[in-house]
Structure formats: structure tokens, C-alpha cells
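Obj: model holo form, ligand = fe (ii) ion.
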Amino acid sequence: MLTAGGTGILATAAAAVAAVPARAASIVSGPAPGTDGTPEQIHLTWGHDPATAVVVSWASPDQAVRPRVQVGERIFHAEERPYTDGINGETVYTYHARVGGLRPGATYGYGVTADNDLNAADPFSATFTTAPRGRARFRFTSFGDLATPNPQWVLSYGQSAYAVSAVESFQPLFHLLNGDLCYADLNPQVQPAVWQDFGNNNQSSAANRPWMPAPGNHEIEFTNGPQGFTSYLTRYTLPANGLPEFEGRWYSFTIGSVLFVSLSADDVVYQDAGAFVAGPAALIPAPSTGNEPIEPGTSLYIRGYSGGEQTRWLDRTLAAGRGDPSVDWIIVQMHQCPASSSKTGNGSDAGLRAEWLPLFDKYQVDLVLSGHDHDYERSFPVRGIDHHVGTETATGATVDTWRPHPVTTVDSGTFDTSRGTVYLVLGCGGTSANLDAYGVDTADGITQARVFTQPNRPAASATPGVYARAGADATEDATWSAKRDTATGYGIAVFDVDPGSRVDGQTSITVTQYHAVGADPVNPATGAKGTPTDNYTVFETFKLVRPRSDRARSA
Ligand SMILES: [Fe+2]
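Output (holo C-alpha cells):
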């Protein structure tokens, strides 16, 4: 079953499943009395070099004794990273094993266990596949705003389970999860339980292939670290960004000819949408935490938290990527939307546009994926900014929304992204709140977007002691919007990268958006009531093309 030399490369997944428990059992010395170190919430992320390294992460109900991963003959001991939730005082134990020295494009079986694993006789096992080296075909998938399938939690919904199954059905090399993972902040007294349901729901895919996340506004939790990201950061080990104060918040990795860049948009957006106490009651942490009550009207607003470090890192990272002849594509993942025209959702944010779109233009970023609005929207390729074309909602005055400028408004189905960046809203994971109602200017029938051009900090409402945060403060004609899915707010995007066969030729990415028609609790266009469904069908397919970078250098 194992190849000679103990490299751990397995011929088939079945062989891996058969091999690992038997070997793992031989090294188990028995559970420590009274503690349960059984691995759960098991998930993979890429290591520094996705062709040779992955990280296996998990949690256990109690502290684990000798937590470890086995790959073939090799044992990788896990780092323990516990934290205590700042609201309910529960301590969570997470474990992270860095598995390196792997071969590119190879499938490995692995097992996860501990001395006090109650399943020690038959520990958890699965397989993963490392990234290919060099220009190669591969597939990845993406959505954001997943939640959990447990309807007990605010914003959770059964579609969340089908969304995870959908990832598996497409067998991607990896998945991009574009923020707002489980909305634990909206269930503040039980945050660890919400994260647990999220992790266990994801495990059926994320233990088989890396799921690479970006932090969203709902990862911001009161009393959990300087930006509120402790629950998130403790559960994920992500590629290093070289900035010790900000590790895990943003990062990049390269697979084949594609540079992936994951950003923390809360650092630059105007909108205030992190943890918030609306009132009239205060949020009172458990006495064991020693934390003070959080008064009504308090929100955790972290715009500017990196002091410009993230944008400087982004400039350096994009410059290096676009200057590298082995990199054709640059794909950016973030949570909030530079280009969304959802009417019932958040819309677009001029803070993001002003800070990062000039860099995306300068370095010809091909594709930007977001979440946040629970629907699907695609832009035309855009480059440059139309200034002072927005309208302030309250006054009717002209305002600068930093509107992206479309380089074409012909929806040809094939777009050269060396000429303009395509933006996708993919907040279509599995929440209970579909936001697939889109803006239209009633005066002229033109597609319209709402845009934040300033912070919407909490303000007193008409009800004494209750506070609210306003929606976007401006509108614009969304000349950049190419396609919006009115059938459902649920779906998954599938990306097939084809490096092309000739140095002087083109490379392409075929994008197919699959949607789950009928999953909307209520469809805003038709009023039809629906339920979660596993039936994902094609909504649209389009193709991105660009000249290969090795051609540009040789010309
Ligand atoms: Fe969000």
C-alpha cells in the first residue's frame, strides 16, 4: 500500500484509508483519564509552498495528548494553539501540524490522532493532493458567507451543508472561502459552539483539500484579540506574510501560473459591520473572563488597523507577481465588495476602491473575488475610475464613489483581463438571508448600486437605548455590472485554469457559476418560497484570457 522509501504516496484513496488507521493504532498509548482529545473540525490549508506542504488543523473537546498527523511512515507533531472565548469564557483547543517534504501533484493518505483520541483504534483518515509545479491545468472553486447547517444559530441555514457537498462534487484542488465563515459574532454567548458546527460541517470537504479563507466582517468578535480575529486566527494556519503583528490576516500563495492574494478588507472599507451591540441590553461577558459589559451602541470598527502595512505589502506582492515570468494570472480574494449592486445587501465600498483598485489596475490583477452580499454578480472588465458620478442619498448632491470604469460593455463571454479586471460577488454560500434583489434606477431603468463613501457608525434610533448602523450613503449608475442572478442567492463558482500550450499563445480560465435554484427561503423577484437543495445547475459560463507572461518577456 505504501511506496518504497516511506514517501507516503498512495496509489488510491482507498489504500490510504486502509493504511493509516492500522499504522496509527500501533503508536497510540491510550487515552489520558477523563479527557477527550478526539480530533474534530479537521481541515487543510496550503503550506508556504503548495506543491510540497500542507497544514492539517483541527480541534478537540479537551486538551489533546501528543496530537499528531501520520503520513506514511512519517509523524508530524502538532502545535497546540488554545484560546479562551472572551464572552462565554470557554477554552478551545486547536492543533496545527505542518506537513512538508511532499512531492508536487501527488496524492497522500494521512491520519490524525492523539494519545487520548477516543477513536484511537480507528483514527480519522483522509487524503489530499499537493499542487502541481509549473504551468499546469488545475481547478479551484469559491464562495463566501457559508454559515452552518444548524438553524439554531443566527444566519445559519441548511444550504450550508449542500454547499460543502457541492465543493466535493467538483473535486477542486482547493477552495477559496471568501469571508463571513459562520457568523459566530451574531450569536455572541455561544461563539465556540457556532465555530464547532462550522468546522464539523466543512470537514467533509476541507479535510480532503485545502480551504483557504479570507476574514470577513463577521470574523470580528468582541474581546477576542486586537481586531477581534482570535477565533479565526486560532483555527487557521495560513501562509506567512512576513509581518509578525499581522500574520494570518492577509497572505499570498502561488499555484502553477497563478498568484493568489487574500486580503483583509476590514482594514480599508468605510462600512462598519463587525461585532455590534444594538441594545437595549448590554452584552455581558461571563464573570470568569474578567471582561466588562459591552454597552449598547458599541461596535468594533477596525478600519485602518494595519496603519497602511497591508497596502504596502499588497503593492510589493503584486509587483513581484507581475514581474515574474512564471506567473500569468493574479487572483485576489477578499470579503467586502468593490462592485456589488445588491439592493438589500451592503452594496459597494468606496474605501476599498480608493485604496486598492489603483493597485489592481497598475499590476493588471485579472480577477477579484468577494463575498458579503449573498448573491452572484459579475462585472465587465474594468480599468480606471470614473470620479464624481455618484449621488448622496440624503441630499442629492454629487459625491465621488470611485466608480470602476468598464473597458467594454459588450457581454461577449470572453474577456481579455490584461485590459481590465473582472469582479465577482460570490456571497452565495449558505446563509439564511439571500440578498439577490438588485438595484435599478426607477427614473431610467439603469442598473444602480449603493455605495458607502463614509463610515456608518452606530447612531441612536427612535427606540430609547437602541442603536442602529445605516446602510450605504450614496448611489451610482452601475455601468460596470454585467450579470446578476435573480433566480437564487445560492451557488458556487468553478474555475478551470488552462496554461495554454505555446509560449507565444494565450492562457485561459473558464469560469462556470452553478446555482441552487429553489434554495431561497423567499425569492425576492418572484415571491416563491424555497428550501435547501443539493441541485446545483449551470447559471453561466464565461472565459478569461490573457497573453502568457513568458511570451511578454521573450517578445
Ligand atoms: Fe459580510
